[in-house]
Amino acid sequence: MAIREATDRVRKSTTEMKAAMRGKCKTPGCNSHLTLWKGPGEKEYCDPCQRNFAAFGGMATPSKAYSQLRQTSCSDCGFDPAKLPRVKKYKESDPKKIQQPITCRTDSRSY
Questions:
Q1: Alpha-carbon span 61 to 82, nearest angstrom
Q2: CA within 13 Å, CB half, 97
Q3: Which of 26, 35, 91, 103 lies 20 to 30 Å (CA to CA) from residue 13?
Q4: How far is C-alpha 21 from the chain's CA centre?
Q5: 42 close to 33: Cβ distance less than 8 angstroms
Q6: Would you say 104 and 111 are in contact if contact means Cβ atoms under 8 Å apart?
Q7: What is the share, in percent, of the chain residues with pLDDT greater than 70?
Q8: What does the pLDDT read at residue 104?
Q9: Facing residues of 110 across strands?
Q10: Which pairs from 8-17 meet CB under 8 Å and 24+ separation?
Q11: Could you tell me the residue ranges of all domains in the chain?
């Protein structure tokens, strides 16, 4: 699946926008109105949460509300593998091309 560009999104119709303004995002802790854009999660999530989906290059999936809370860095030591030079070059293309596992500095687990 190709990653969608946030700039290529299509707005909802006026009727759909009015309905979206009455609804609330289902992400835990987020109390925003639903997104005004069409796409994955349009009927359940606000705009920032919708852009956090894997279809837009994020870490969340529409079927799991808790996946919006995923982070890209280690919560213990703050290590962010996205800042490594070998990861940066693949960040915009295909992340599956990374050959070596990325390990956290505080333990020996592979991510």
A1: 20
A2: 9
A3: 26
A4: 22
A5: no
A6: yes
A7: 70
A8: 54
A9: 103
A10: 9/37, 9/38, 9/39, 10/37, 10/38, 10/39, 11/36, 11/37, 11/38, 12/36, 12/37, 12/38, 12/42
A11: 6-69, 74-111
